[in-house]
Write a structure and sequence with these properties.
alpha+beta
Length: about 170
């Protein structure tokens, strides 16, 4: 738009005028003057540029604010991006609505667990089970006095001691 007064430009999604995009952090909107058509600079273009990243925040915004299914099984969804320009009070000099359809293609997320997550869970469960089995075997060995827990009658004798070993006849 060009001329005076400066036009008001409002960006919306799916003609939802209650949720104007200037106030959202998900979108970057740059408004400013463009080309000038007279020497005094009175008549000039007014330009508004909208940009956004298609990321998790954007998908959540579309789903929460506009009720758009951002994870359809087909992997594709669309929405209309509207630009409403009004010049003067309630568009008394000029009013225009331009829209474009935006199509987003993505991979359907079935919310199933990833293989690495499943592998990690199985690994942790196996490690805990092995630790429990080891503790049970050690408790069993202690209770039955086996292996290193056995209380043998063997007594340590100093090798320097001059005692004779017991023989069959001495018993």
């Amino acid at each position: 738009m060009y001329g005076r007064p400066v036009p008001e430009i409002m960006w919306t999604i799916n003609r939802d005028d209650r949720n104007e995009l200037h106030s959202e952090n998900t979108f970057t909107i740059r408004d400013g003057s463009g080309s000038t058509y007279d020497p005094s600079g009175y008549i000039k273009d007014w330009v508004s540029e909208l940009s956004f990243d298609v990321n998790e925040n954007f998908m959540n915004y579309l789903a929460d604010t506009h009720g758009i299914d951002t994870n359809p099984e087909s992997g594709e969804f669309t929405f209309d991006l509207d630009c409403v320009v009004e010049q003067g009070t309630n568009g008394e000099y000029n009013s225009e609505r331009v829209n474009t359809r935006v199509t987003v293609r993505r991979i359907y997320n079935s919310n199933a667990m990833k293989g690495t997550t499943i592998g990690m869970i199985v690994g942790i469960v196996l490690a805990v089970l092995i630790a429990i089995v080891v503790v049970l075997v050690l408790v069993f060995a202690k209770a039955t006095e086996r292996w290193c827990f056995a209380d043998d009658d063997y007594q340590y004798r100093d090798p320097q001691e001059k005692r004779r070993p017991h023989t069959q006849a001495q018993r």
